[in-house]
Amino acid sequence: MTDQGLSAQGAGPRRSVIDTLEIDVRLLGMLMAFAAVALVFTIWTGGTFVGPRNVFNIAVQTVPVAIMACGMVFVIVARHIDLSVGSMLAMCSAVMAMSQAQWLPALFGLEYGNPAILVATILIGLVTGTLIGSLTGWLVGYQRIPSFIVTLGGLLIWRNLNWFTTNGQSVALTDPNLLMFGGTEGVLGATASWVVGLIASAVAVWVIASARRTKQGHGFMVKPLWAETVMAGLIVGAILFFVGWLSRYPIPEAKLKRLFEARGEVMPEGYTAMHGLPISVLILILVAVVMTVVAKKTTFGRYIFAMGGNPDAAELSGINTRLLTVKIFALMGFLCAIAGLVAQARLQSHGNDLGDKWELWVIAATVIGGTALAGGVGTIYGAVLGALIMQSLQSGMAMVGVDTPFQNIIVGLVLVIAVWVDILYRKRLGLTK
Amino acid sequence: MNQTARTPLVEMRDISISFGGIKAVDHVSIDLHPGEVVGLLGHNGAGKSTLIKCLSGAYQKDAGQILINGEEVTINNPRDARAQNIETIYQTLALADNLDAASNLFLGRELRRSGLVDDAKMEAETRKIMGRLNPNFRKFNVPVSALSGGQRQSVAIARAVYFNAKILIMDEPTAALGPHETQMVAELIQELKAQGLGIFLIEHDIHNVMKLCDRASVMKNGQLVGTVNVKDVTDDDILGMIILGKKPAHLAA
User: Fold this and answer.
1) CB A208, CB A236: distance < 8 Å
2) Cα distance between residue A373 and residue A73, in whole Å
3) Measured on CA atoms in the order A264, A267, A273, A275, is the torsion positive or negative?
4) Which residues of chain A are at the B interface, by a Cβ-Cβ cutoff of 8 Å?
5) How far apart, in whole angstroms, are the C-alpha atoms of residue B60 and residue B50?
6) Structural domain of residue B80, as residue ranges?
7) Is residue A231 part of a domain?
8) Considering its fold, how many domains does chain B have in total?
C-alpha cells in the first residue's frame, strides 16, 4: 500500500500508473483471472464462448449465486459463516411455489397467474427468508451458538422442511409474470437496454465527479483529472459494451412468432428482436449496488466491518453487536429469497434439490472475490466477480466437453489457488502480520 | 485545592463484582474531582481494571452505586457510559485494525450527511484533532494495523478527547510507548486536567504515578488498601501499600 497520507502533503514519491488510478490491486488480479479464463475458452471454442448468446447465458446463470454471495460477504466479514443458504433458498422457493400455485389461489379463489397472487407470493417469500435469517442470527448473536453449528443444522433442517412443504413433489411454475424474473423469458430488449446502460453510465460519472468535489471541498489531494477520466471511461465503456453485446443476441424466430400469436397478431415478415438485458441481471446489479452503498456508506456496514476487525472494539464503541448479528443473517435470508425467486423462475419449477450444494458455490465465490474468512475484509464487487469467474469456468468447461467430476476438481483447485495467491501476494507486500 | 467542599465528579460507592465465586472487586469506594488525576494501583489481578470497567460499561457491577455529579446513574453498557461523557482508553486500545484512523475515531458515533456516513468530513475532523495531538501523524488512509504503537495510541486518545469527555479513564496509556511518546501523553494529561476533566489513570510505573497523579488509590486482592494524596507520600510508601496491602504508618491514624 502506498502512503496516501504522505503524498497528500505534496512531495510524495513517484507513483506508478496503478497507484495514480487508485485501482484496487486485488480487483485488478481478479479481472485478469477472469480475462484469462475468457481468453482460454474463447480460443478453445473458436469464439463461441464470448458470443452474445453464451455471455447472456453465463450472466443469467450467475445471478442466484451472485445475489447470495453479496450477503455472504457481510456474514464472513463479521467473522461468521452461513452454510444454510442453499437450503434457505430452497425453503423460500418452496413457500413461494406453494403460495402461488396452491395456497393463495385456494384461499382467495383467484386463478393461478393473477398478478396479485404473484405480488403476495414474492412478499411472503421475502418475509420467510428474512424470518429464517433472523432466527439464525438470534441463535448466533444472542445465544452465542457458533454460526457454523447453527447453519449446519439449518442446512439439514430447511432442506428437509422444504421437502415437507411440497410433499416431496416438484411444483411446475408457468405464470409468465413469474418467468420474467428468470432470465431468458424476461428481457428488456435492445432499446430499453441501451437506455438503462446510458442512465447507469451517467450515474457512474456523476458519482465519481461528486466524490471528487467532496474531497476537494475538504482540501484533500485528489488524483489527477486524467486518471479520474480514464477510470470513468473504463467504467462507462464496460457498461455500454455489456449492454451492446447482449443487445446483439437475437430472440429466436419461432419464439417471436409464438409471442405474436399469443397477442393474436401475425409477425411481420423479416421482424427481429434482440434480448438485451435480462431482468434477473438487473436485479443482481441493483442488489450489488445497494449492498455496496450499505457496506461503504452506512453505519450498519461500517459496524459490520468494525465487528469483523475487532469484535471487542466494536462492543466497547457502543455497537450492539448482538442485534447487528441478527440483522446480518436476516439480510442473508432476504437475499436467499430473492435468489430463490430468480432460480425457480429460470427453471420454471420448484424442485426439492433447488440450491443443493449452492452454499459451497456461494462461499467459494465470496472467498475467490477476496473476502477473508478471518473477517474484516471483503467487497461486494469482488464476490460478484468471484461468482462470475466460477460460472464462466463451469460454462466453458461444459462447452468444451470436460466431464463433470473434472469440472468440480478444477473449480476446487481454483478456489484453493486463488486464496493461496492472495496470501503470497499479501506476504510479499508485508500486509499480513 | 479545596476539593472536599465540592461534589465529586464521580463517586463509586461500595462497588462489588465477582466472577464465579471469586470476588474480583470487594466493596470498593473511590471518587474523582474535576481537574484531578487519580491513579489506580495494584498488582495484576488486584481488581483495578475490573473496577474501572464497571464505570466504562464493559462490566456490570453486582452491588454498589455510581454517582456522577452527585446523582446516581445506571451504566449497563459502553453506550450508557458515553452518554455520561465518560471516555475510556483501553490498554488494548480497542481499535478495529482493518479500518482507518477516521473510522476508528468516529466508530459508533459517525458523522452523517443525508443518512450516509460522511467520510470526507470525518477525515477532515480527524486531521484537525491529530494536528493538535500528534502533528507528525500522516497515515489517514490506511488501516490502523499499519500504524506504529504510538500512532495507534494517538488514535485511541483522539477518540476519547474529541467527544468532549468530562471523565477520562486511561488504562496504562504509556505501557507500549517510547520515551518521547510517553512525554507526549504526560503533557496531554496535564492539558486535559487544566481543562477541568477528571482522569482515572491505571498505571504500573510508580514514577509516572508520582509525576502525573494528585491522589492514588491502591488495591490488593479486590479490596481497597487506601487512597492517599500523592504529595504526602513517597515512592516507598506507595510500593508498601501495593506489596504489603497496608497504609503507611504515618497516615494510618
Assistant:
1) no
2) 10
3) positive
4) 1, 3-6, 8-9, 214-215, 217-220, 293, 297-299, 302-303, 305-310, 312-320, 376-377, 433
5) 10
6) 1-85+166-253
7) no
8) 2
Record the pTM: 0.90
Give B117 to chain A, closest Cα distance, Å.
5
B108: nearest CA partner in chain A: A317
Please report whether residue B90 resides in a domain: no
What is the torsional sign of CA A60, A61, A62, A67?
A: positive
B99 to chain A: which residues are within 8 Å by CB?
302, 305-306, 309
Phi-psi region of B74 (alpha: psi -120 to 50; beta: other; left: phi over 0): beta
Domain coverage including residue A113: 50-186+278-429
Q: How far apart are CA A8 and CA A233, in angstroms?
A: 25
Question: What average pLDDT does range A69-74 have in this prediction?
Answer: 98
ipTM score for this prediction: 0.88
CA dihedral sign, ordered A289, A292, A296, A298: positive
pLDDT tens digit sequence for A147-178:
999 999 999 999 999 999 999 999 999 999 99
d(CA A47, CA A320): 53
The residues with which B11 forms a beta bridge, in sequence order, are B31, B67
Same domain, B206 and B160: no
Sequence-distant (6+) residues with CB within 8 A of A139 are A145, A150
Residue B34 pLDDT greater than 90, yes or no: yes
Q: How many domains does chain A have?
A: 1
Strands (DSSP E) contained in B5-130 are 10-19, 22-32, 37-41, 63-68, 71-72, 86-89, 112-113, 116-117
Residue at which a domain ends, from B145, B164, B183: B164
**pLDDT the model gives residue A311:** 94
Domain harbouring B229, CATH code: 3.40.50.300
B181 and B75 both lie in a single domain = yes
CB contact under 8 A, A218 and B123: yes
The model's confidence at residue A3, banded by pLDDT at 50, 70 and 90, is very low
Residue A417, in any domain of the structure: yes
Q: What is the CATH number of the domain that holds A93?
A: 1.10.3470
In a domain, B92, yes or no: no
Residue A388 lies in a domain: yes
Per residue in A99-155, pLDDT (tens digit) is 999 999 999 888 888 899 999 999 999 999 999 999 999 999 999 999 999 999 999
Q: Where does a domain end: B146, B164, B182? A: B164
pLDDT (0 to 100) of residue A11: 41
As a whole-number percent, the residues of chain A with pLDDT over 90 amount to: 73
Strand order in the sheet with B167-171: B86-89, B167-171, B198-202, B37-41, B215-220, B223-229
Give the whole-angstrom CA distance, residue A368 versus residue A393: 13
Q: What is the largest CA-CA distance in chain B?
A: 63
Chain A closest-CA separation from residue B38 CA (Å): 23
Cα–Cα distance list, B64 to B12, B16, B26, B27, B28 (Å): 7, 6, 10, 8, 9
Which residues of A are less than 8 Å from B95 in CB distance?
310, 313
Query: In this structure, are B242 and B202 located in the same domain?
Result: yes
Q: How far is CA A399 from CA A49, A53, A245, in A?
A: 8, 13, 20
Place of cell 462461499: A363
